[in-house]
Each structure stands twice: as structure tokens, then as C-alpha cells.
Design brief:
Elements lengths: L5 H15 L7 E2 L3 E6 L2 E6 L4 E3 L3 H4 L6 E9 L2 H8 L6 E3 L7 E4 L4 E4 L8 E2 L5 H14 L10 H15 L5 H6 L2 E8 L10 E7 L17 H7 L8 H10 L3 H17 L5 H5 L3 H8 L8 E6 L5 H5 L1 E3 L12
Parallel strand pairs: 11-12
Antiparallel strand pairs: 1-4, 1-9, 2-3, 4-5, 5-7, 5-8, 6-7, 10-11, 10-13
Length: 328
């Protein structure tokens, strides 16, 4: 075997350096097809809107690895776009400098040789530090979903279905309220080692959305509001609570309306009868016994109140897809 030609290696490195030295994660490549592998055979995927680079910038500018990871750019409209912009659909990540309808579609990932001349023809997809941080986090989030136990997944599917249906109806109060939610997370007080799991749904609102009070002294709920929220002792439907919340200006009332709305979402976290009917009896029993107290608790906070320690001890509830556990 002959020794590697050092001059050839240096030339390849020079080509890579020239092509990629200015490319960054989130940049757009005007390339209208990309190679994919399907069942061991090479194929081509049409990408009429081009590609978005998702490799980390530090990997892009180095000659090794020799490839860029890319994903198709797609154009979304309506509720699909608003959900994606709000981070509620992790499959899609906004690329703001290419337009408000521009998103990287992370459901398809391909690689391109850094020496390909077309790689050098790029357009900035991200501009501000905030855009760059959001894009990087969103890409990482797509591949780091927590594998909720099989028996827990049916508990959160009704909430997933509710949010998607509300979001898709323009002007729906519950969908408009959910747009003000930064993230939903799930805490298991005693961990995920074995059921039943003591679960809390943490509704994290955008900063400033939840009223605060002097000295952190929580006021009493107004009697009229307490009666309105629970006529005959039963909590009103979430859509009615959201409608009043969006029209309410009084801080105390807004605070308790948010608590009521979050409680209505937590109440949705119960396995649907139809879903249970499709299960084998032994699996049905596992699902019904999965959650301690037969209910999911709830807490409402703003993003600036939710500390790093709690973040590490909780899992994001991805309402687009609930990941099953890894194979055993």
C-alpha cells in the first residue's frame, strides 16, 4: 500500500477551508436536490427551496468531519407556521432571515461533501445572537427527546390532541392562550425508575405573563371569580377560562385564571377510553396504574422563575411527538 500523498491531503484541506470558512449553522444553500439512502440504495430528494445547514459551526469550519449535515428548507403558512415559530412543533425550526415562513425541516437529514463547489454558495439564515441560540437549541432538542415510559404516553396524548386542535383554529381562545406558554415540562417527584409515577405538569409561561404581587404575598381569589370558575363545584372548560383570561385586565383575576386554565390542561392528562380499548388487558392495567393518585398535578410559573435545577430534574413535554422508550 502506498503512503498517502501529503500534497493531496493539504490540497483537500485547502478546498474545504475555502468552501466552509464563512458558513455557519442555519445558513441556506441553494441546492435543489440531496442524496439519500433508502433500503441500502442511493436516491435523490428534491429540495426546491434549498437546504439549511444544521452542523455545528465548529464542525463546519474544520476539514474533519468532511461532510456537512443539512436538512430541507420548507415554507409553512397558517397555524403550522405559528406553531413552529412558537417552538411547539420541534420538527420545524425557524430560519428568520429567509422569511417568516421559512423553516428547516428536521424530519429529513442528509450530508454534503464540503468539497462540493455548491457548498460555497450560501445565504445567511440567522443574524442575531438570539436567533443563533434558538436555532442551536431547537436542533439539539429534536434529537434529545425524553423517552417517556410506554404506560405514561397515553396519559398525555389527550392534551397533545387538544392543543393541536385548538392551535389550528384561528382566533380560538385556548390556542391563543397556549401561544403564551414558553414550554410544558413534566416532573416525576420520585424519578422514573418504576410506576406509579408522581407526576406534575409544569406550565411555564413567557416572562411577564403571570402577574406578580408585592412581597410575594398571594392574594385571595375574588369570590365572584371563584364561583364563576367552578359552578356546581366543577371547573369550567378550558376554552371558557381562556376566553375570560384574554379579556381580563385585573392582575389578581388573571393570576387565578391562569391557574384554572393550567388545571384544566392537567385534567386532560388522562388516557382516552378509545385508546385504552385498543390495548391488551395486561397493557391496559399498566397504563391505568402508571400515575400515582390517578391524576397529574399542575404548577404554573414563568420562564424566569423556573430554575436550572428544576430544569434538569424535569422533561419537556413535546406535543408534536411523544417518544417511546428505547428498545430493551
Amino acid at each position: 500500500m502506498s503512503e498517502p500523498d501529503a500534497s493531496t491531503d493539504e490540497a483537500a484541506i485547502a478546498v474545504v477551508a475555502h468552501h466552509t470558512k464563512d458558513i455557519r449553522q442555519g445558513d441556506h444553500l441553494d441546492i435543489n436536490k440531496v442524496p439519500l439512502s433508502s433500503n441500502g440504495e442511493a436516491d435523490w430528494l428534491a429540495t426546491p427551496d434549498g437546504l439549511v445547514v444544521i452542523s455545528q459551526t465548529c464542525d463546519i469550519v474544520r476539514p474533519d468531519p468532511p461532510h456537512l449535515l443539512v436538512t430541507p428548507l420548507v415554507r409553512l403558512t397558517g397555524s403550522d407556521a405559528s406553531e413552529a415559530r412558537g417552538g411547539k412543533r420541534p420538527r420545524y425550526v425557524a430560519v428568520p432571515e429567509l422569511g417568516s415562513d421559512a423553516f428547516a425541516d428536521l424530519s429529513v437529514i442528509a450530508s454534503l461533501d464540503k468539497q462540493d463547489p455548491d457548498v460555497a454558495k450560501f445565504t445567511r439564515g440567522l443574524k442575531t445572537d438570539e436567533q443563533i441560540r434558538f436555532f442551536g437549541r431547537a436542533v439539539g432538542r429534536r434529537f434529545a427527546r425524553f423517552p417517556f415510559p410506554d404506560e405514561v404516553v397515553p396519559w398525555f396524548q389527550p392534551l397533545q390532541k387538544l392543543v393541536r386542535s385548538r392551535y389550528q383554529k384561528e382566533g380560538n381562545p385556548e390556542g391563543d392562550a397556549f401561544a403564551r406558554v414558553a414550554e410544558l415540562r413534566v416532573e416525576a417527584m420520585d424519578g422514573w425508575t418504576a410506576p406509579p409515577y408522581d407526576l406534575t405538569l409544569v406550565v411555564i409561561l413567557e416572562p411577564g405573563e403571570l402577574p406578580v404581587f408585592a412581597g410575594d404575598e398571594m392574594p385571595d381569589i375574588p369570590r365572584e371569580l371563584e364561583t364563576w370558575l367552578r359552578p356546581s363545584g366543577t371547573l369550567r372548560p378550558g376554552i371558557e377560562i381562556a376566553d375570560r383570561l384574554l379579556k381580563e385586565n385585573d392582575a389578581t383575576s388573571r393570576y387565578f385564571l391562569w391557574l384554572g386554565l393550567a388545571e384544566s390542561w392537567a385534567n386532560r392528562c388522562r388516557p382516552a377510553t378509545a385508546a385504552l380499548a385498543r390495548l391488551e388487558p395486561v397493557d391496559r392495567e399498566k397504563v391505568l396504574a402508571a400515575v400515582a393518585g390517578d391524576a397529574v398535578g399542575v404548577e404554573v410559573l414563568t420562564a424566569d422563575e423556573f430554575g436550572l435545577d428544576r430544569y434538569r430534574r424535569s422533561e419537556e413535554l413535546d406535543l408534536e411527538h411523544l417518544s417511546p422508550p428505547p428498545p430493551r
